[in-house]
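Teaching assistant's notes for section 4

Start the section by putting this record on the projector. Ask students to predict, before seeing the second block, whether Post-GPI attachment to proteins factor 3 will look compact or extended. Collect guesses on the board.
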Amino acid sequence: MKEIVTAITVVFFFILKSVLASTGDRSQMFYSCLQDCLAQNCSGSSQDSQSSLILQALQWTCSDECKYFCMWPTVNWFVEAEIGVQQFYGKWPFVRIWGIQEPAATLFSILNLVGHVVMIKRFRKEVRPSAPFYRMTHYFCFICCHAWLWSTIFHIRDVRFTEIMDYLGAFSMVLFSVYHFLSRVLAFESRSFQYSLFFGIAIGFYFVYHSYTTFFVKMDYGYNMLINIAFGAVNILGWSIWCFKFYKRRPYVKQCAAFVALVAFTTLFEVLDFPPLFWVLDAHALWHLSTAPLAILWYKFLIDDCHHMEGQKLDLEKLA
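Reveal the predicted structure now:
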C-alpha cells in the first residue's frame, strides 16, 4: 500500500509541473508568430466569420486559431533544433479533428461513459430492486456518467467552464467512492443509516463548498489535485483493507481487490507523460483508455456484493 500512495504522490507532482510550466507558448518564435497573426487576422469586425460553422459552434475564436496555427511551426522548430516537442499552455500539441481539441481522449471518455451505461443495465437485470445498495449503485452510475460526459466535453473543447466541470466531475466520482466505501463498511450496523446520512451530508456540503470556491473564487490547480489524491488514497487504502479482511471468506471480493489494484496501476499513465503519438495519442488518453474496461470489473463486484448482502438481510430477518 505504501508503494501505491507513493505512486499517486509522484503523479501529483508530474501533473502539477505540466500545468504550471509550458515552454512552447513562452518561446520567442511562437510569440512573434502569434502577434503577427493577431494583427493581420483578428483586428476587423469579421474576424470570426472566416471560421467554419463547427469551429464557431465550439467557440474557436480568431485568437485561438492563431494560437493553433502558430503552434505547429514552433513545434517543427523545436524538433529541428533537437530540443524536442514542448507543451503549449500546459498541453501537448494535438492535431484538431472536426474541431475536437483532443480526439483520442474524447473517444476514450465516451468509452468510459458507455461502459457505465452498459453495466448498469446488466446490474438491473441481475439484481432485484429490493436488494441493499441497489439505489446506491444507481447513484454511483449517474455520478460517473455525469463526470465522463464532462470529460468528453472538456476534451472536445478546453475552455474555463468545461475545464472546471471536468475537474469537479472527477472529484465527485472520488468523493462518492469514499462515501460508498464508508456506507458499505457500516452496512448492517445498528446505526448504519444515521452514520451513512452523516457522512453523506458532510461530503455533500464539502463538495458544494469546493465547487463554489472553484467557480467564483479561484481555480487552484495544486489544491484541487491535492484533495483528489488525498481522497483517492483514502478510497484505495480503505477498499484494500476491506478486501484483505474478506477475500478468503467471500471469493467474489477478489474482483474488488483487482479493481483497486488496477486503478492504482493505470494512474501511473499520468507519470508517463510524453508527446502524443501521431499528434493524437498521449499518456492521458491512454489513461482514459485503460480505465474503460475497469467499469465491467467493478459492476461485476457490485452485483455479487448485492447478492451477498441480500442473503445477509434475509438471515437477519429470520433471526429477528
